[in-house]
Amino acid sequence: MHCRNLTVSERNLVTLYALAAETFLSEVMMEFIRLLIVFLVPPLAVYLQFGIDRHFWASCLLTVLGFVPGVLYSLYVMTARPPGLSRLSIA
């Protein structure tokens, strides 16, 4: 596969590139799965991202009243607030 032996720094660079590509692909895949869940079961997607809070209950109510409003609200909430610890602000 390689025409010559790689130096240590070149191997480290290749390893770093492979790790970055793998991380990017896993993040893209998780985002795709989250959006797929939004279109299938909107309250479940909100629950998986935020737990049981006001956004979850609002999503449940809107989904019961009409599936499309539940999907739109869940999409809005999930795109407006990033998942995980990145949504916490350090003051």
TrEMBL record:
The reply on keyword Membrane is yes
For this protein, the parts annotated as crossing the membrane are: 56-78
**What keywords appear on the UniProt entry?**
Membrane, Transmembrane, Transmembrane helix
Does Transmembrane appear among the keywords? yes
Gene Ontology CC terms, in alphabetical order = membrane
State where the protein is found: Membrane
Return the similarity comment.
Belongs to the UPF0057 (PMP3) family.
This protein's name: Proteolipid membrane potential modulator
User: What organism is recorded for this protein?
Assistant: Neorhodopirellula pilleata
